Amino acid sequence: MAFLPLLKKSILILTAGFLVKTALASYRKTQPGLKILNYDAKSIFLGIKDVYLGPRKLKARDLLILAAMAFTILSLYRYDEEISNWFRRRGETALVVLKNFGWYYGSPENHYMINAGFYLYGFFFRNEEVRKAGTLLITSSLAAGLLQTILKIITGRARPLREEGKFSFKPGSRENSYYSFPSGHSILSFTTAYALATQVRQPAL
């Protein structure tokens, strides 16, 4: 759809203009704003650090859960191609709007833009809850994004489009077609869902 790139650029320009206008209107509050930015930057750094040092704090119960998850994933890997084909067939009948939404807004650059927009809204409009949610979103996305990028390069698993089978690996490859594991879209989706869920106060939700 040729209009999608144009629509995407238009939204970016309008969003940037709105944020600049809001920033200028809030200029008189710059000093408190700088303190908040400094505090949030430290929170993001410490949060990412905690993610990577967290495994040191795992207890026996956590290790059992991790082992069970690994066993389940390895067991399902036997049916990887069958599962992939099933979902791809269903994708042919899915609504184009939903497919485009999932693809464009699940991509890293758009995902980070949305997270930044979340944070900036809370920052400029002095909404602490939204700002904290934005901080958590940025932290989880950066931590997960870095990890999945490293794992993609290390594993070098071929994408289905190469049609080389589920055991095709090329560790250290620089070709994007060998970056199928782990799924960046899935990781960013789960981290975003979890980060937002922690901000919901109603247990039923």
Could you characterize the architecture of this molecule?
- This protein has helices spanning 3-25, 30-53, 60-77, 80-91, 96-104, 108-124, 128-155, 184-197.
- It is mainly α and 205 residues long.
- It has a domain at 40-51 and 95-197.
- It is globular and about 55 Å long.
- The mean pLDDT is 78.
What percent of residues adopt helix (DSSP H or I)? Answer: over 70%
Question: Could you tell me the strand content as a percent range?
Answer: under 5%
**N→C terminal distance:** 36 Å
Number of strand segments: 0
General shape: globular
- Which residues form runs of ≥5 with pLDDT under 50? none
Whole-angstrom Rg = 20 Å
Describe the main β-sheet briefly: none
Question: What order do the SSEs take from the amino end to the carboxyl end, as H and E?
Answer: HHHHHHHH
Question: Key features?
Answer:
single chain, 205 residues, mainly alpha, 8 helices, 0% strand, globular
Topology:
Elements: H1 3-25, H2 30-53, H3 60-77, H4 80-91, H5 96-104, H6 108-124, H7 128-155, H8 184-197
Give a concise summary:
InterPro entries: PAP2/HPO, PAP2/HPO_sf. The protein is mainly alpha-helical. Helix 2 runs parallel beside helix 7, helix 6 runs antiparallel to helix 7 and helix 7 (128-155) runs antiparallel to helix 8.
